[in-house]
Amino acid sequence: MEISATGRLEVRITAADVGKRVSVRRMNDPAVPGEKFTDTVGVLASWDNGVLLITRKDGETVHIAESSLVAGKVVPSAPARRRGPSASYAELAHVATRAWRPVESERLGEWELRAASGFTRRANSVLPVGDPGLPLDDALDAVRRWYGAHGLPAYVQTATGAEGTQELLCAELERRGWVREVTAELWIGALAPIADRAEGAGVELSRDVDEAWLARYQRKGVSEVALKVLSSGPSVWFAQVPGSGDVPAAIGRCVVDGRWASFAAVEVGPEQRRRGLATEVMAALARRALDEGASAAWLQVEEENAGARALYAGMGFAAHHAYHHYREPAGGPAAGGNGR
Questions:
Q1: Given strand 296-302, what is the order of strands in its sheet?
Q2: Burial of 14 (0-12, 13-18, 19+ CB in 10 A)
Q3: pLDDT tens-digit map of 151-197
Q4: How far apart are CA 335 and CA 84, in angstroms?
Q5: Using CA atoms in the order 168, 298, 76, 1, what is the torsion angle rounded to 10 degrees?
Q6: pTM of the shown model
Q7: Least buried of 42, 57, 305, 327, by fewest C-beta within 10 Å?
Q8: Whole-angstrom Cα distance, residue 309 to residue 175?
Q9: Are strands 296-302 and 21-27 parallel, antiparallel or unpaired?
Q10: Helix/strand/coil percent split, the chain, to 5
Q11: With helix as H, strand as E and coil as C, how does 240-289 read?
Q12: How far is CA 92 from the centre of its chain?
């Protein structure tokens, strides 16, 4: 907190600091037992009518009464990672969308509208990186019309917690009644250590997804549209470890795109877990990606998936940013996407 030369806490932020990363301390309600003060760090999304909206790294928006402030200051962006690759949010956003392509897409200025018959929100949401070329309300109206014409609800995918992410857009969407339904994180790490963690023994790699691989995939009844999404990307590889029957013991998917390799659909049969098969699958895919010139890796993990988070942290991955899907206000089309 900002402390003056006299030792007093000071509020050194104003409404002119909207859009900047700030750290504030507010006084809690004295009638409620507990700590006297609460500290909040995040992006100052707005300061209107005596209320500050601060969006934290995880995307949660905190409402703070101006009258409760006891200290506040602008703080620098989060420090750069000390290990592993570096990347901007914009770079990762575009790499991620190339690894999971929709069946249909259209540009709205610099935004990309994506649709794939509802197969995952990622392939059925707007990627709002850049300027839509319209005032926000007009852009959102155009988004709703486009998704309505496709028989889908309108979703906007946003991100928080890194340089260049969209805390202000999140606040504007919430102000307009859009509802955040899903939050996950994108993690990055160096590729070579993943390849070094295991031999990749017994892992079979293929350019094509087959019936056996799909039998282990968590989303059942995969359609032709889903197959197109799964097979999309600059250089796609599917991995599987044969099981005792027709269903593989483990599977995985990797897309190589320049210096980046993405990992997804790393799944192990319940009866085969704790044998290191997920590590073997990722190591085999990592070796292939290294052979194609990649050096960095990324993946997406849900907040509540403690097992996956522990596995990936042990491989050297760390969170780069959180991403969220906002659904249009009630009254839009009833059909919906599913999954991340």
A1: 104-108, 111-115, 126-127, 155-160, 318-327, 179-190, 296-302, 260-268, 250-257, 235-241, 204-206
A2: exposed
A3: 999 999 999 999 899 999 999 999 999 999 988 999 999 999 999 99
A4: 40
A5: 90
A6: 0.84
A7: 305
A8: 32
A9: unpaired
A10: 25, 35, 40
A11: EECCCCCCCCEEEEEEEECCEEEEEEEEECHHHCCCCHHHHHHHHHHHHH
A12: 10
pLDDT for the residue numbered 201: 83
For residue 197 the two structure tokens come to: 């963690």
Q: How far is CA 143 from CA 92, 254, 324, 326, 328, in A?
A: 23, 31, 17, 12, 9
Q: Could you read off the pLDDT of 255-278 as tens digits, one per residue? A: 999 999 999 999 998 888 888 999
AA identity, residue 288: R
Question: Looking at per-residue confidence, does 20 or 286 come out higher?
Answer: 286
**Token digits for 52?**
């500050």
Show the tokens assigned to 78: 């989060």
Q: Say what the alpha-carbon torsion angle 25, 28, 46, 328 is, to the nearest 10 degrees.
A: 130
Q: Are strands 260-268 and 296-302 parallel, antiparallel or unpaired?
A: parallel
**What residues are paired with 184 via a beta bridge?**
302, 323
Within 8 A by CB and 6+ apart from 123, the residues are 100, 101, 102, 103, 114, 115, 116, 229, 337
- Cα distances from 200 to residues 203, 207, 211, 246, 315, in angstroms, run 6, 17, 22, 21, 15
User: Is 95 within 8 Å of 201 (Cβ atoms)?
Assistant: no
3-state class (DSSP) for residue 316: coil
Alpha carbon 273 to chain centroid distance? 26
> Do residues 243 and 272 make contact, with C-beta atoms less than 8 angstroms apart?
yes
CA atoms 26, 27, 32, 38: torsion sign: positive
